[in-house]
């Protein structure tokens, strides 16, 4: 049993495609405060199933998070499409990096995040 089960039950009974909620409404529903990281890091609200217990709650209810607004502390739960194929585990390092960053940062097309920067760090000086 998880403290986030009330959120899971609430979402599972919704008949709409979208369920907008504030962070405060979620706290009222679960009768507990969200952890401080929920207010500081957008990635906490990602749909990565290994992210946190609350993530499993909304995913198990058939929803995904969208339009997370950290400033106004609001988000939208959107019903996951039934035809979505399950995500496959990335096999190489670069794919795992991209998967980890999904939804948290924007990298412009053509930017190679693995390319050397030309900076020399103290640890590299011998």
Summarize the structure in words.
With 126 residues, the protein is of the alpha+beta class. The chain has 2 domains: 5-79, no CATH class; 93-124, no CATH class. Helix content is 29%, strand content 14%. The chain has 5 helices and 3 strands, in the order αβαααββα. The protein has a 3-stranded antiparallel beta sheet with strand order 1-3-2. Helix 1 (5-12) packs parallel to helix 4 (53-60). The N and C termini lie far apart (54 Å). The model has no long low-confidence stretch (mean pLDDT 85).
Reconstruct the topology from this structure.
Blueprint: H1 5-12, E1 18-22, H2 23-30, H3 37-40, H4 53-60, E2 63-69, E3 74-79, H5 93-101
Antiparallel strand pairs: 1-3, 2-3
Helix pairs in contact: 1-4
Main beta sheet, described? 3 strands, antiparallel
The global form is elongated
Uncertain parts: none
Helix proportion: 25-40%
Q: What Rg do the Cα atoms give?
A: 18 Å
Structural class: alpha+beta
């Amino acid at each position: 049993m998880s403290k986030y089960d009330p959120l899971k039950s609430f979402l599972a009974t919704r008949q709409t495609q979208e369920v907008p909620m504030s962070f405060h409404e979620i706290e009222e529903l679960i009768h507990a405060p969200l952890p401080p990281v929920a207010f500081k890091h957008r990635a906490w609200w990602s749909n990565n199933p290994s992210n946190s217990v609350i993530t499993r709650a909304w995913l198990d209810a058939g929803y995904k998070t969208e339009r997370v607004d950290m400033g106004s502390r609001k988000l939208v739960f959107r019903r996951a499409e039934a035809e979505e194929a399950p995500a496959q585990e990335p096999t190489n390092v670069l794919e795992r990096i991209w998967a980890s960053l999904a939804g948290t940062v924007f990298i412009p097309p053509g930017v190679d995040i693995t390319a050397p920067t030309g900076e020399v760090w103290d640890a590299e000086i011998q």
